[in-house]
Amino acid sequence: MSFCIAIDGPAGAGKSTIARKLAARLCLVYVDTGAMYRAMAYHLLRKGTDFTDQAQISADCQDADISIAYDNGEQIVLLNGENVNPYLRSEAVSEKASVSSTNGDVRKRLVLLQQKLAEHTDLIMDGRDIGTCVLPGAQLKIYLTASASTRAKRRYLELTQKGVNCDLNEIEREINERDYRDMHREISPLRKADDAVEVDTSDMTIDQVVSQIMEMALKKRKAG
Ligand code: DC
């Protein structure tokens, strides 16, 4: 059986930064499942799908063949063979991904793909339902959190450093809205798995978080 680490938590808790660093240090493949949900939302946006119509989302997601490849360790999401990475980080895609990821047919397709990836590969996978649904047998499960105000400040800094004009209160409002949607959806809502270790990153540096999880991962790998 492969060695898998599941990292779940709300948007902006630092999951992808932490998971990428851990994967490099532990020689594991990093799988960013949020990017797959984003690619599906991008597919639906391009098709002109009505995001308020679940039946249409179910029908329109059927011709999206999503797969992943790696270039220098960096994950590339392929949508029907096309590299769609450059389109996945826009605000429109972020917002729509949070809507279309509530659809059962979208989730069925992507969860199956994620489980197949983990069958024969040692990996670290991050998302919202990895410990609870995708990889319930993962050897280590982490639930990464940070307060909404900390996550908003981090996002504000990231955007202003890029020269983007933004409003801190507006960012915090959007974060709270996405958290609510991710935690209250009917299928696989974001929640801590019973056997997950919660790590609150509000007052920690990235290196401190990485070291803490590294220690847990090495113990688990030794034990296994
Ligand atoms: O982690 P992210 O912001 O890139 O995720 C984009 C959206 O996809 C987010 O609204 C939650 C959803 N998602 C999900 O429902 N399940 C996952 N395993 C990963 C992401």
Structure description:
The chain is an alpha/beta fold. The chain is 51% helix and 17% strand. The chain is built from 9 helices and 8 strands. The strands form 2 sheets. A 5-stranded parallel beta sheet has the order 2-6-1-7-8. The chain has a 3-stranded antiparallel beta sheet with strand order 3-4-5. A hairpin with a 2-residue loop joins strand 3 (66-71) and strand 4. Helix 1 crosses helix 9 (206-223), helix 2 (33-47) crosses helix 4 (91-100) and helix 2 runs antiparallel to helix 5. The mean pLDDT is 94. Residues 11, 33-34, 37-38, 97-98, 101, 127-129, 178, 182 line the site of 2'-deoxycytidine-5'-monophosphate.
**What letter string, H or E per element, gives the SSE order?**
EHEHHEEEHHEHEHHEH
Biggest sheet character: 5 strands, parallel
For the biggest β-sheet, the strand order reads 2-6-1-7-8
Assembly type of the chains comes to single chain
Question: Outline, from the CA principal axes?
Answer: globular
Task: Tell me which ligands are bound.
Answer: 2'-deoxycytidine-5'-monophosphate
Proportion of strand residues? 15-25%
User: What is the number of beta strands?
Assistant: 8
* Helical segment count: 9
Rg, Cα atoms, Å: 17 Å
On the 0 to 100 scale, the average pLDDT is 94
Helix content: 40-55%
Derived structural class: alpha/beta
The stretches of 5 or more residues where confidence is low (pLDDT under 50) are: none
Short description:
This protein is 51% helix and 17% strand. With 224 residues, the protein is an alpha/beta fold.
Write the layout of secondary structure elements.
Layout: E1 4-8, H1 15-26, E2 29-32, H2 33-47, H3 54-60, E3 66-71, E4 74-79, E5 82-83, H4 91-100, H5 104-120, E6 123-127, H6 130-134, E7 140-145, H7 148-161, H8 168-184, E8 197-200, H9 206-223
Parallel strand pairs: 1-6, 1-7, 2-6, 7-8
Antiparallel strand pairs: 3-4, 4-5
The structure holds 2'-deoxycytidine-5'-monophosphate.
2'-deoxycytidine-5'-monophosphate binds at residues 11, 33-34, 37-38, 97-98, 101, 127-129, 178, 182.
